[in-house]
Amino acid sequence: MDFENGPLEDTIYFPDSNAVLETGRARKDGTRHGLWRAYYKNGDLRAVGIYQDGKKEGKWKMYNREKKLLAEGHFQRNVPDGSWAWYDEKGGKRFERTYKNGFKEGNWIGYYSDGSLYGEAWFARSQLTGGIMFSPDGREMPMPTLGKLMERIVLLEGKNGTVKGEKPDSRENLWRFAINSGNPGKIKDLADNGIEIKQEYIDMICEKWYQANQNGGGYYGKETIAYFDTPQAMEAYRNDFGKNYLTQLRTDKQKVLTNYEKQSVIIRRCRDMLDALDLYDIVIRKRFIVKILSADHAEDARFTGEEVRCFWERGKMSVTDGIVYSSPIGETEKKDLMEIALDSYYTEPTVVQFLIDVGYPVNQGHFRKIASIRESYYRDLIPDEDGVSGVNYSESDVINADRTLRVVRRALGDLSLPDGIITSPDDVNMRVFPNGTSRVVTTISSGTLVNIRSEVIPKYWVHIKLENGKEGYVLGDFLKRI
User: Fold this and answer.
1) Distance between CA 185 and CA 277 in Å, rounded?
2) What is the pLDDT of residue 364?
3) Residues with Cβ < 8 Å from 282, sequence gap 6 or more?
4) H or E segment and range at residue 120
5) Of 168, 183, 217, which one is at a domain's C-terminal end?
6) Does one domain contain both 355 and 428?
7) Do 160 and 210 reside in the same domain of the chain?
8) pLDDT digits (tens, 9 = 90+) for 242-269
9) How confident is the model at residue 326, as a pLDDT?
C-alpha cells in the first residue's frame, strides 16, 4: 500500500540500556506516521510495518529471535483485519486465520510440520462455532465439545496465536464471574461451548482454594476448632475471663466453627470447579504445588495429602522433576517435592505418605530431619521463664511429627532404625542399671533418637540403645515411641 513518511525520525531505547527498541517516522507532534521497525535487545529485527496517524495500518511482519518470519498479516486502524498467517521455525505455515474489524471471523486452518492438515475451524465475532480436527495420519479426531476443539487450536498456536489489538470472545468475562461465584455448572458450560480455558482462570481457582484454606476452612481450621475442647484452652480462658470463661469459650468456638463451615463451602466449590474441567487438559502450575507444600508461617495455609494429590495429578508432574526452589534466606537450589515438603515448618504425615505412594524417595536423612523438626515443636511447648509456651507450635504439631516419623520409618523398611525419641525439658541421664543410684553411662539431650529394648511405661525404667552403640536405662517419662 502507499504510505507517507512523517518528516521526523524517532528512536526509542530500551529503558535499561542504549539498545534501540523501536525506530521510525513521526509527525511534528510526535504521532507515529510512516514506516516503523521494532528490535530485540541484541539488535535483531522483531517487527516491521506502517503507522498512519498513530495507528498500525496495512501489512505487518513479526520475526522470532532466530530471525525467522513468525507471523504476518494486515491491520486496519490498529486492529487486525484480513488474512493472517503464522510460521514454524522451518518457514512452513503453521496456522492461518482471518479477522474482521479485530474479531476472529471465518476460517482457521492449522497444519502439521509436514504440511498435512491439522484441522479447520470457524469463528464468528471471535466465537468458535465449529470445526474438524485430524490426527497426523489423516484420521478425523472426535471432538465431543467445542471446548475440546478450542483446546486443539490452542495446543497448536501455543503462545503466538494472539495479535495485539484483536478483540476477544465477549463471553470471556463470564469466566471470572463463574469462578468468583463458585459455580461449577457454569464453568463446565463455558468450557464446553468453546470459550478458551486460559491458564489465569485455573490460577484463580487454585488461589481461591488457598485463600479459603488460609482463612480457616482447611486443616488449620479443624485444628483451631479442636483446640477449644482441650484442657489448655479451658485453662487459658479461665485465666483470661474468670467465672464467665465457659460462655466466652463457647462463643469463640461457634465463631470459628461458623467461619470454618463458610470457608469449607468455598473449598468444596473450588474442587468441584476443577472436577468440572476434567474433560480438558488443564494444568496446575508447579509453583502453586510448591506453595501448598511450603508452610513457613503459622498463618500459611496447610494442606492434607488428599488435597495435594488433587493438585499434583493436575500438575502433570513426574517424580523425576526437579524444581528450582527459593529458600527463606533467598538462595536457590534444585529439590524434589519431598525435600520441599520437609523444608516446611509444619510436617503433615498424610502429605509425606502421598509423596511416598507416588514414588518420591525417602532416606535416613529425611528421618533425622523430621526428628529435628519434632524437637523444635517440643521445645516451643515448654514454658519459658515468663510461663509462655506454644508461641509457634501446638501439641498437634508434635503428634503430626511423630506420625510422619512412623510413615518414613515404615517406608524405609529398616528395623534397625531408631524407634524412640527422648523428650525432656532437660538432659536425661542414661544409667547402667534400672535404678536412680547406678552409674551414669552418658547424658542424653532431648530429641535424641534411640532404639527401645523394653516396654515403655511412665515412671518405670526402660532399656534403650543409642546409635553409637551404648546401652542403658532411662525413665519412661522421658521417652516417646515412634
Assistant:
1) 10
2) 93
3) 197, 202, 274, 314
4) strand 117-124
5) 168
6) no
7) no
8) 988 999 999 999 999 999 999 999 999 9
9) 65
Yes or no: say if 291 and 297 are a contact pair by the CB < 8 Å rule: no
Instruction: Confirm whether 88 is domain-assigned.
Output: no
Phi-psi region of 298 (alpha: psi -120 to 50; beta: other; left: phi over 0): alpha
Predicted pLDDT of residue 463:
97
- Say how many Å lie between the first and final Cα of the chain, rounded: 81
Ranges assigned E (strand) in 279-422? 323-326, 332-335, 420-422
Question: Residue 181 carries which side chain, given as an amino acid letter?
Answer: S
* 401 in Cβ contact with 370 (< 8 Å): yes
In this model, does residue 2 exceed pLDDT 70? Answer: no
Residue 213 has pLDDT above 80, yes or no: yes
Last residue of a domain, one of 334, 361, 388: 361
Per-residue pLDDT tens digits for 76-92: 999 999 999 999 988 99
In the predicted model, what is the mean pLDDT of residues 334-347? 87
Q: What is the mean pLDDT of the chain?
A: 91
CA dist 215 and 297 (Å) reads 14
Residue 328's pLDDT is what? 57
Residue 298: per-residue pLDDT: 67
**Helix (H) or strand (E) segment spanning residue 241:** helix 231-241
Residues 6+ apart with CB under 8 A from 379: 446
Cα atoms found within 13 Å of the Cα of residue 328, Cβ hemisphere only: 8
Which conformational region is residue 139 in: left (phi greater than 0), alpha (psi within -120 to 50 degrees), or beta? beta
Q: Name the pTM for this structure.
A: 0.86
Q: Which ranges of 79-230 would DSSP assign to H, the alpha helix?
A: 146-157, 173-180, 184-192, 199-212, 219-227
Q: 18-40 in b/e burial notation, b at 16+ Cβ within 10 A?
A: eeeebebbbbeeeebbbebebbb
Residue 3 pLDDT? 60
**Pairing mode, strands 428-431 and 461-466:** unpaired
What are residue 228's phi and psi, to 5 degrees? -65, -20
Q: What is the pLDDT of residue 332?
A: 76
How does DSSP classify residue 166?
P
Number of structural domains the chain divides into: 4
Indicate whether 265 belongs to any domain.
yes
Domain ranges, residue 133: 94-168
Whether 53 and 64 have beta carbons less than 8 Å apart is answered as: no
Assigned C-alpha cell, 411: 517406608
Identify the sign of the CA torsion 437, 442, 446, 451.
negative
**What are the tens digits of pLDDT across the range 405-415?**
999 999 999 88
**Among residues 335, 332, 342, which one has the least CA distance to residue 364?**
342
Q: Residue holding cell 463451602?
A: 265
**Residue 59 within any structural domain of the chain:** yes
* pLDDT at residue 121 is higher than 90: yes
> Residue 342 belongs to what H/E stretch?
helix 337-343
Residue 151 lies in a domain: yes
